[in-house]
């Protein structure tokens, strides 16, 4: 057994252990555990500094999870865009491929909170049908392995999936979404990296939420992956009490860059049942973005997105930089809130961009078929 597998076996996952170690009420924890799985591996546990700190909040259950009964279980409507159980096909050219339900820790804020840990909902037995779906859909040029955490699979199983995807000529890039570099960096071994690098172009998005998660172990994991030629990105979830502070986020983003990880997304917390206590106002996210852009390396500035409830996909949000317009003069402000005037170029009178945009918008509202026709005509 490899070290990471041994560490997993030593995870805290029972009501008894939680009552003993953290003084939880056993009955409450049992109730939570039945609804949403609990697992804290010894590495992530060791990062906790005090009760209620940003690490603690992410991994230890809270009775308020049970009070949140109004939010949906599948807020992004992933099931509706799911042609086969393991695939979510929402965007034209890429799919999400769920390859396992297992994680090395069950994050209390997880969007798929009711699915993770449940192998009836996400399972290896759906892998072949996922690969067949992708093979039958030539428009899919980008496959994102997700779950659960794909790195919970053994190197052998993961390689079978990667080899299966690489055998499909229209699959250009493969991405893996894994939290392991952050929550169980021991999983990233030289053996794993040697296997991964046979399947380039391969991208990995990992998931750090707080600067305390950047440790010698996680640095080593990111180094091994980067040395294997894998471009690394990070997706952070914005959470109350964890990282809803511009200084904390800036420190995290800078530390990630030093680990060769490029910040990719900051997600507004989804409206998932059992996670309501983590949500923040949109103004908090906008303020964070405002205090990143210009104040530190542009490379440290990710996109701030809301995954639209009901399955509309990711929608980017930016602070307001255009203050107003006076004829051709556009009034802008910079990161220090200094005001500048930019003389815009006259729009062509023949096909004013704004009118064209409005016309399309109106057609979209009233007549989607004609909108498609006009888009096709515009392209010609
Ligand atoms: C996030 C997501 C993707 C990938 O989106 P990118 O913006 O290309 O990173 C693909 N499919 C689904 C369903 C997603 O939620
Ligand atoms: S590792 Fe990812 S999929 Fe697993 S519980 Fe955490 S956020 Fe959810």
Lay out the secondary structure.
Elements: H1 3-9, H2 15-22, H3 26-35, H4 42-45, H5 54-59, H6 64-67, E1 87-88, E2 94-98, H7 127-135, E3 142-146, H8 155-166, E4 173-177, H9 180-183, H10 190-196, E5 202-206, H11 216-227, E6 232-238, H12 246-258, E7 261-268, H13 282-290, E8 303-308, E9 313-317, E10 322-326, E11 329-333, E12 339-343, H14 353-366, H15 368-379
Parallel strand pairs: 2-3, 3-4, 4-5, 5-6, 6-7, 7-8
Antiparallel strand pairs: 1-2, 8-9, 10-11, 11-12
The structure holds pyridoxal-5'-phosphate (PLP) and iron/sulfur cluster.
The site of iron/sulfur cluster has 10 residues, from loops.
Total separate domains: 2
CATH architecture of the largest domain: Alpha-Beta Barrel
Structural class: alpha/beta
How many beta-strand segments?
12
Distinct ligand kinds: pyridoxal-5'-phosphate, iron/sulfur cluster
What's the gyration radius in Å? 23 Å
The third-level CATH topology of the largest domain is TIM Barrel
Strand content: 15-25%
Helix content: 25-40%
Q: How does the overall form come out from the CA principal axes?
A: globular
Describe the structure.
The protein starts with a helix and ends with a helix. It contains 15 helices and twelve strands. With 380 residues, the chain is of the alpha/beta class. It has a nine-stranded mixed beta sheet with strand order 1-2-3-4-5-6-7-8-9. The chain has a three-stranded antiparallel beta sheet with strand order 10-11-12, with no helix packed on it. The protein has helices spanning 3-9, 15-22, 26-35, 42-45, 54-59, 64-67, 127-135, 155-166, 180-183, 190-196, 216-227, 246-258, 282-290, 353-366, 368-379, and strands at 87-88, 94-98, 142-146, 173-177, 202-206, 232-238, 261-268, 303-308, 313-317, 322-326, 329-333, 339-343. It folds into two domains: 3-317, TIM Barrel, CATH 3.20.20.70; 350-380. The relative contact order is 0.10. The longest helix is centred in the C-terminal third of the chain and has 14 residues, at 353-366. The model has no long low-confidence stretch (mean pLDDT 93). The site of iron/sulfur cluster has 10 residues, from loops.
